[in-house]
Amino acid sequence: MTSGNVMPKTKTCNELLSLFSKLNRTERAWVLYADMFRLKIKSSVKEFLGFMEILGIKPTVVTYSTIIHGFCLRGRVGGAHMIFSAMKGRAVQPDSYTAFGYSDEMVKKGIMPTVSSYNLLIHELFMEARASEADCMVREMEEKGMVPDAITYNILINGYCRSGNAKKAFILCDEVLRKGIEPTKETYTSLIYVLSKRKGMNEADDLLEKILRKGVLADLVMLNALIDGHCANGNMERAFSLLREMDKMKVHPDEVTYNTLMQGRCRAGKVEEARELLDEMKRRGIKPDYISYNTLISGHNKRGDMNDAFKV
DNA sequence: ATAGGGTTAG
User: Fold this and answer.
1) Which residues contact A57 (CB under 8 A, 6 or more apart)?
2) What is the pLDDT of residues A80-103, one digit of tens each?
């Protein structure tokens, strides 16, 4: 639990604790020993499964999903894919990872991928920019009679938005609505983000209005993305009117909001006005970060007034 | 029980 660079989440800890509480004293000693031991060796997952086996605790699909997640977080993508293949009963290369049950033995033990396991892998494929394979995964799920859930769709929509494929993202959003799944505010943020990046500011504004009408509360990240779109397209008036709307909606702007606005003003050659925003954010108790200063310094630099750049 | 989620510079 303590090894590695990934902090366990509360729920994970609860899981381990509940596991722990089911053990007798000797077994607890073994687990503690295992944990201590894991700090000194690399193959912690193998060890963990090994001790589980010794203790007669059978891993479930959740155990393996948790392991897949851990591998993804640590960038051990190959391992993640292999465990998933093993869950599907596909023969995997008999190497060190298969030693403790990552093999087609899993199917015999009744370990089959769930929607959650698929979601893990679909997300991983998007992180690796392997969108078409992610699509195949969804089809594979559906062929097996599994139903993609809201999380599956959020992964897909966000993935396509990040790669700039707005069309595909909107098609998926329609599909979600058709299926009666309620998109979340994060889904809409992804869509506003992609519209803003693709200069579709009218559509982005319309979408925000539609969302608000639906009763979904606008939030900071969503509005920041929209403000950035307007700044990038030189519509500073609209950007600032959104800032005022934020205040009205009691959504408190943060350093990202102000950095975005400062950048917009710098881009328009209004470095002094951008500098005023630095004071304004300080007055409002928002702490400028390194991006705030970089933005102003490079704004001055572009104009060649190095003295002012140093004053920032 | 495990899984997803967003914004700013260069």
Assistant:
1) A19
2) 898 898 888 776 665 545 444 455
